[in-house]
Amino acid sequence: MNWQLIWQVVFFGLMLGFAAMSVLVIINGAKDVRRLLSGLEDTRANADNTGNDETPHQ
Amino acid sequence: MNADVQQAFSQTNFGTIDAVIVLVYLLVSLGIGLAVKRYAGSMENYIGAGRKVGTWLGVATMTGTELGLVTVMYSAQKGFTGGFAAFHVGVIAGVGTLFVGMTGFIVGPLRRMEVLTIPEFYEKRFNKNIRVLGGVLLVLAGVLNMGLFLKTGSMFIVGVTGMSGEGEALKWVMIALLTLVLIYTTLGGMISVILTDYVQFVVLSIGLLSATAMAIWQLGWSTIIDGVQMQLGAAGFDPTLEGTGFGWSYIFWMVVTTGFVGSAVWPTAVARALAMESEQAVRRQYCWSSLSFAARFIIPYFWGICALVFITATPAGADLQDLFLPANGDQPAVENLYAMPVFIGRLLPTVFLGIVTAGMIAAFMSTHDSYFLTWSSVITQDIVAPLRKTPFPTASRVRLTRILIVLMGGYVLYWSLFYKGREDIWDYMAVTGGIYFTGAFVVLMMGVYWKGTSSFGALLGLLSGLLMLLALEPIQIAVGLKHQQAEGEWVETLTSPQIGLITVAVAICLTILGSLMRPDSTDSCNLQPENNTNDTAG
User: Fold this and answer.
1) What is the CB neighbour count within 10 angstroms for residue B396?
2) What is the pLDDT, as a whole number, of residue B223?
3) Which of residues 178-197 of B touch A (CB under 8 A)?
4) Structural domain tally of chain B?
5) Residue A13 C-alpha, separation from nearest chain B C-alpha, in angstroms
6) Would residue A2 count as lying in a domain?
7) Distance of alpha carbon B312 from its chain centroid, rounded?
8) Are B414 and B429 found together in one domain?
9) What is the CATH number of the domain that holds B408?
10) Does one domain contain both B455 and B378?
11) Is the CB of residue B219 less than 8 Å away from at least one CB of chain A?
12) Do residues B177 and B153 make contact, with C-beta atoms less than 8 angstroms apart?
């Protein structure tokens, strides 16, 4: 078995995949952060309106 | 640290601009952590981010948590000693995580049940006592597991910055970093952990990729291959060779530990899955994270390999050869954990070095915050709350969790100075983690997929994990599993991977036997999602 070739393919394949994933995560993760914060803000506002300091359970 | 070592370490490119980059990054992390404090009112928000985390943010936080500085350090050490052969661990981790993502193995059912922690599953599936026992074992193993995080993190900073490892400055830097993590984790809980993880992912991924590209560019691919061949021979590429630190029992042990446990059973990873907005998002998160689970091993392995080649095959690193690989066997070698950071400190130009160091400190912080939060919330939710006779309101739970986080910070500082084992850091991590996961892996898997698993079987399965204590070096020596020969060489009767595999086999047998001997009544378990009573249940 040619281990040198195997690890070379694994390494460069992974580097390409990880680089592509990083770009996707950085762009789409920022959108997820905005959604998370607006969801938490809504939940907090609802809790304030109902006079309850607990977050409603899902 | 003697004068020669200090002199060699001081030849780093780390300068004032790099220090400023690191400082700005730290302030941004702290600012984010403090800004989201107002959302951390309930336990569901505090330890589960309100279960509102989307797929991409989930991938970022999973990567940030599991790719810690300690991971980078122990992986670089494996690459330095094992060469390309160590890559098999990364491949196993990636394939195992992809398998979990495609099948939903263990994490899918857990997310459907809407539990917040693994021991909470034990109570729904078995009973309260199993939940408490599972929580105790998990915390015991988890807290031991993170004992060396600070020490290895400090070694990176020493190596990269050229700072004295024995002076006061390093201790203050580490205390400052720890304090920073404690502040934003205690105040903002999972929400600040996830948001800082995102920023840490950005810095970390840029740092990892740029340093790797720079290493290849500076050393040359063929020099790297030839250097490993010259230093390690075939063992530097073939992981199946016995007697080289790897071999088949090591590979099988890695299939269990990094293949399945690391992704589907390890509580910090599972905590991310349980904070996701849906089961589908969990699966997508795992499929994408398979790349980062492989990268978190393979990239640092590669840095360790490059450090080996830099030291042994290039003129720029020639002065380090006598320190790390002395030709004279009587001369003590410098701890090889320092090899990678010293190499990085000399390889990267200023500014680049600042970004990579900030990335590594990001890795340090993102792992610490998640571990602190996970273990402290398990103590609160799964040990203290079930044992209390009176109601345990949300505010008290959050307060207790915060106090526990601070106590754990003190423990980490203490243990870093106390533990004297001689294992590779990775082996220490696998063994201490194994105390929890060998039993938990079996009980979780069988609890989810075999209806016949009973509380008694689960009890025996969880307790079996304690056999892993036999793989810790001080205990191995105490019970005679490891002894020193007259020539001074240490001999192991059973290696740590062999003890790990035996422990898993014992856990499976005892869980099955216990379940058959003392089955539960058929209506004793409740696997449906509950309208969460976590916050108020006494």
Assistant:
1) 14
2) 94
3) 191, 194-195
4) 2
5) 10
6) yes
7) 30
8) no
9) 1.20.1730.10
10) no
11) no
12) yes
Of chain B, the end-to-end C-alpha distance in Å amounts to: 53
The one-letter code for the residue type at B53 is V
User: Is residue B360 situated within a structural domain?
Assistant: yes
List the single residue in B with minimal CA-CA distance to A53.
B41
Sort out which chain A residues have CB atoms less than 8 A from B366's CB and list them. none
Full domain range(s) for residue B272:
3-418
pLDDT (tens digit per residue) in B291-314: 988 998 999 999 999 999 999 988
| Radius of gyration of chain A, Cα coordinates, nearest whole angstrom | 22
Structure tokens at B511: 């869980």
Task: Answer yes or no: do B361 and B437 share one domain.
Answer: no
Residue with tokens 């999602």: B529
Name the residue among B39, B59, B294 with its Cβ closest to that of A40: B39
E strand or H helix at B484? strand B482-484
Give CA–CA dist B324/A38, Å, rounded. 52
- What whole-number distance in Å separates Cα of residue B70 and Cα of residue B416? 12
Number of domains in chain A: 1
Long-range contacts at B276-279 (CB < 8 A, ≥ 24 apart): B276/B51, B276/B53, B276/B54, B276/B55, B276/B58, B276/B111, B277/B51, B277/B52, B277/B53, B277/B54, B278/B111, B279/B104, B279/B108, B279/B111, B279/B112
State the pLDDT at residue A58.
Answer: 33
B427 and B328 in a single domain? The answer is no
Residue A14's pLDDT is 95
* Distance between CA atoms of residues B129 and A36, nearest Å: 35
Residue-wise pLDDT for A37-51, tens only, equals 887 777 767 766 665
More confident residue, A14 or B432: A14
Amino acid at B431: V
Q: With H, G, I as helix, E, B as strand and everything else as coil, classify residue B483.
A: strand
- Asked if the Cβ–Cβ distance from A3 to B84 is below 8 Å, we say yes
CA distances from B281 to A41, B43, B133, B244, B274 (A): 21, 22, 30, 41, 10
CB contact under 8 A, A40 and B84: no
∠ CA B436-B441-B442, nearest 5°, is 115
Q: Which residues pair with B276 in a beta bridge?
A: B53
A-chain residues near B205 (CB < 8 A)? 18, 22, 25-26
* Calpha distance B269→B46 (Å, rounded): 17
Within a domain: residue A4?
A: yes
